[in-house]
């Protein structure tokens, strides 16, 4: 506790032998962060530049990739600073802000995937009505809702946590997630109930909607001609792979927090790193390789680079 400035600092206790391997950690994480930014923004720029990619499906993909970069930027700069610092600490207010961004952007990913599932459903199951349903206004409303709804819900949780008394100043992690609740002296019943409601609205409902939508697409595609089945496979498979990947990593994160001290420190660090390393790189790779139009433009881009 800093009495002069009245700032409460939290010790991030999730690092493993950071003093011994600080330079190795720093180089690896900096390289990955640069790759995340370059890979995601390459595809975003391709979607921005090429008119044939100015369709709702590709706009939603661009939004998802931008969300991944924001998610990474919330974590990586602070991690890089921690690796080069003698003490791995964070002020409680900054910790709450990181928690806010971590969960609001994570929830936005579920909602964006739900919107993408709806877009695929309309495209495949109601192709004649697609232009009238997926208008620019509809796309804008979906995008705004995907970011605004989680932001409002998580903001309420953060406000509830601001004035709560802390009895523990050591957080078992390398960044601020649900583990911050273990710092509080008492558990708030109201906050717990609102937290459950938030999870249901921003994660469970979108997940169930996605499963329902893709089930409908699968049934209709199976009953349709070969071209419809091919279109469904080409456009839906990347979304499903991203959904499975993100859902598994979210499940890992929840398990780590719930198990707490029962989980070995090294194993907890490795699984936590999967959440921030694997998924932000997985998205652009999947969409770059599996989406036919994006893949075509990527090949042209790399061919031009080789010629130059």
UniProtKB/TrEMBL annotation:
Protein name: Olfactory receptor
PROSITE patterns: G_PROTEIN_RECEP_F1_1, G_PROTEIN_RECEP_F1_2
Main location class: membrane
InterPro entries in the record: GPCR1_Superfamily_Member (IPR052921), GPCR_Rhodpsn (IPR000276), GPCR_Rhodpsn_7TM (IPR017452), Olfact_rcpt (IPR000725)
Any one Pfam family match given in the protein's UniProt record, by short name: 7tm_4
Listed GO MF terms: G protein-coupled receptor activity; odorant binding; olfactory receptor activity
Gene source species: Lates calcarifer
Domain G-protein coupled receptors family 1 profile residue range list: 39-287
């Amino acid at each position: 506790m800093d009495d002069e400035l009245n700032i409460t600092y939290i010790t991030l206790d999730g690092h493993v032998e950071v003093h011994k391997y600080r330079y190795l950690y720093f180089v690896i994480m900096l390289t990955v962060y640069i790759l995340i930014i370059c890979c995601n923004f390459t595809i975003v720029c391709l979607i921005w530049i090429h008119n044939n990619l100015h369709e709702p499906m590709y706009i939603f993909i661009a939004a998802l990739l931008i969300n991944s970069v924001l998610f990474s930027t919330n974590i990586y700069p602070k991690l890089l600073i921690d690796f080069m610092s003698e003490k791995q600490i964070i002020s409680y207010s900054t910790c709450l802000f990181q928690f806010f961004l971590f969960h609001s952007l994570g929830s936005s990913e579920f909602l964006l995937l739900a919107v993408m599932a709806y877009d695929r459903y309309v495209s495949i199951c109601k192709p004649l009505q697609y232009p009238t349903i997926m208008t620019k206004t509809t796309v804008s409303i979906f995008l705004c809702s995907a970011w605004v709804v989680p932001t409002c819900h998580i903001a309420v949780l953060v406000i509830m946590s601001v004035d709560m008394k802390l009895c523990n100043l050591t957080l078992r992690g390398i960044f601020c997630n649900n583990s911050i609740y273990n710092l509080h002296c008492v558990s708030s019943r109201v906050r717990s109930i609102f937290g459950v409601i938030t999870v249901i609205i921003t994660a469970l409902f979108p997940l169930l909607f996605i499963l329902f939508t893709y089930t409908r697409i699968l049934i209709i595609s199976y009953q349709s001609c070969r071209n419809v089945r091919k279109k469904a496979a080409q456009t839906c498979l990347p979304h499903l792979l991203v959904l499975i990947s993100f859902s598994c990593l979210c499940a890992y994160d929840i398990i780590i927090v719930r198990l707490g001290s029962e989980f070995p420190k090294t194993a907890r660090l490795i699984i936590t790193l999967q959440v921030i390393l694997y998924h932000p790189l997985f998205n652009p790779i999947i969409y770059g390789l599996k989406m036919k139009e994006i893949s075509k433009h990527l090949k042209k881009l790399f061919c031009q680079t080789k010629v130059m």
